[in-house]
Amino acid sequence: MPETNLEMKVADKTKIYKSELPIQDKAAFLIICTAQELLNKLGAITKAFDLSLTQLQILHVLDMLPQEKVTVSAIRALLVEDSPNVSRSINKLAGQKRVVKERSSADQRVVYISITDEGRRVHHECDAQIVGRTLDLPDKASRQLVELLIKI
User: Fold this and answer.
1) Which residues pair with 69 in a beta bridge?
2) Which of 7, 46, 54, 121 could form a disulfide with 3 if both were Cys (CB 3.0 to 4.6 A apart)?
């Protein structure tokens, strides 16, 4: 029976911890494993909304910006991950009526993107499913982790 996204196996963190690797390498590999676990978890949530993580990030950027429309270049610059799939993701969001694309009348090479009410709704619903479902750590441990990660 095939495994679902939530049941996917990732590297055994205990093996990394017990390995003979230098401690900084152990820390790096454990961060990578944890990041992959989080991506798997988030991917399962966004998939239920017919979104990729990149598409959710695009909706988030558009929903949070004070201006109504922005260029594709501005979106790309604001994304957490420098994804080469931004244009394709925007095209899919436009096909789903979650964003609108509009060419500049002054320069046809410039395309402005704006979020629709449907895009805003999906963004808020998906975010509501994600918030509180990422790390299962007490507040104190989460604060310590944030302080450590910010130093990297």
Assistant:
1) 114
2) 7
